[in-house]
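Continuing the batch. This is chain 6 of the set; chains 1 through 5 are on the previous pages. Same settings as before, nothing changed between runs. Recording input and output for traceability.
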Amino acid sequence: MFLRDHVYAIVPARGGSKGLPGKNLLKINGKTLIELAIESARDCLYVDAPLVSSDDDAILNEALRLGVINHRRDEFASQDDSTAGDVIRDFLNASDVEIDPSVDPWIVYLQPTSPARTADMVEAAFDVLAEHQPHAKALVSVTRPPKSPYWTLTVGVDGRLHPLFADSYGLNRQQNAEAFIPNGAIYIFKLSEFNKIGKFPVDGAVPFFMSQQDSIDIDTIEDYERAKASLER
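Output for chain 6:
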């Protein structure tokens, strides 16, 4: 059903990274993380236009080499404390991308740090979203956390540990509601839904379930080595 809709895929790739400098240009199976992300968009049946948003010349040149739109991100969306919402707002204001808000396009946000995500998974996510039409306006990929979030502790002003969820702490996993966490691999949403709240519409979004193995997220050199070991078989 999305073949007649406008679907833009954004690959956000800032040059700086405190955890792993230059991580977006690291390679797995001979391809940079940027290339893997672009492939997951370009090879998806429903995506019209993949776009790389970056403040880094090397990343923008990689996008140019791969033949996709490369947008130089504004400074306000390239800081350590910049949010994904800032990246989208910068994209919407870009002069090198023409977006007609009257058609209310779909936005697909594909972080390059999720190298196990494939075009087939992105298509499957759209298929799940289609099952909830016409009411669903957003989808978020999620996975089960390795440990129950209801057992989370925090340190109070008294310097002591306290349960973050006091009413649920200590209960068996089966006694609490099933919990999932976003894995960062796939976000899909209507432009109008983003504009309503100014950030990714997660509350009420359709879940797209992914395994922990497919939910690899690269932030450190250890994450990268684990991803290589898992995907380069």
